[in-house]
Amino acid sequence: MTPAEPLTHIALPQLIRLQADARALKLPSARQVRSRQAGLQRSPRRGRGMAFAEVRQYQPGDDIRSIDWRVTARRQSPHTKLYEEERERPVLLLCDLGPSLFFASTGAYKQVRCAQVAAILAWLALWSGDQVGGLVFDGHKLTVQRPARRKKSVLQLLDTLASQQRIQGPGTESPTATPGADLDTALSEARRVAHTGSRIFVISDFMHITGDTSRLLGSLARHNTVSALQIVDPLERQLPDTGRFAIAGEDGPVWFDGSNPRFQRAYAEKVTAHQAMLDECFRTAGVQPATVMTGDEPAIALQALLGPRGHIG
């Protein structure tokens, strides 16, 4: 991380310049897949539709269910329909910029990493010929942008990511979140916005999951490919074992003593319990989890996470 790079807030020009980082990565393009018959070849993406391409003369091995009986009757010889996979695939980015993401002990703030990851994925999707859309929520506001295959749409999404980041600490704002601007609400809205067969990335620290989160994720994953990218700061996993530290909170600074064994034990148990609950949430929902640390460069982190077909391992 060089001094010129953003640490607490990233602006629109910097998100636009992430095109350079995105060039080293590649999401799969929406390739046209032509099949002799519907149902023989599995689509590489769950729920993708098959569009009619043309009619040609029946050949041995063709599925009789694909025979076009009207053309057959008119030409007095069997003809079968050919289909091709829909060319455009919607990519939907759910971006959490809530109060808990205005934090980092190393690298860049979680809200910066969220915006950077989303920007890189948006550029990759656009270059692959896919539609790009997103939902950005910050605890006070939920902004929805429907998928479209235009550079203007990507720029609008990046502008939203830049403008909805926090610039001042949570202590300067009302601690009461606005109803309808949290993760569960965004997941519910995504179900309404997403088309069947979409590639969906949920980018959040998942600090505030509820009993409904798994169900909402599972509902999205039923007809789409969903990845959960968890933004994590090392301090959230393990506290320093010595020293006295303060963390800014909504009600003022919170102090803790790293050398206190009881506090360390209680903290470790809470972290372990939350992560276990989160892992079970992802497993039950059937989504693909991955982790991006605040100390990681986003392009390098995504390079390790994106497989040859763009799926996160």
Automatic annotation (TrEMBL):
Protein's recorded name: DUF58 domain-containing protein
PANTHER family with a match to the protein in the record: BLL2464 PROTEIN, DUF58 DOMAIN-CONTAINING PROTEIN
Organism from which the protein derives: Marinobacter confluentis
Domain named DUF58: residues: 54-276
InterPro entries membership: DUF58, vWFA_dom_sf
SUPFAM superfamilies in the record: vWA-like
Location of the region described as Disordered in the Swiss-Prot/TrEMBL record: 29-48
Database matches in Pfam families: DUF58
